[in-house]
Design a protein that fits this description.
The chain is built from no helices and nine strands. By secondary structure, the protein is mainly β. It has a single domain (2-102), classed as Immunoglobulin-like (Sandwich).
Length: 109
Amino acid sequence: MSFSKKFLPEKGVCRVSFTLPDSVSVHAERVAIVGDFNKWNPYKNIMKKDKNGKFKATIELPIGKEYEFRYLIDFDRWENEWGADGLVKTPFEGIYNSAINCYEGENLA
């Protein structure tokens, strides 16, 4: 799993590109990126599968905030982005969300 960020200050956004390798999503039909930026909606930010079996998506997020997210595979399996900027503990025992820092001027992931 991986993601990269590109800051576009003229637009006020951080463009985040996500890649989920086939080793994580083997046999998956559908992968969504869900998080606080889309109110945890599994019908938004659907990733597309490329010819190599990797799911990919790019999202533009407003600069100046940290966002929590996870991958939802086939509506029943959650995966974290282990290369994320950090993990955030949730109210649920042993469950963490991945975090993306979109603060302008930070080091890029």
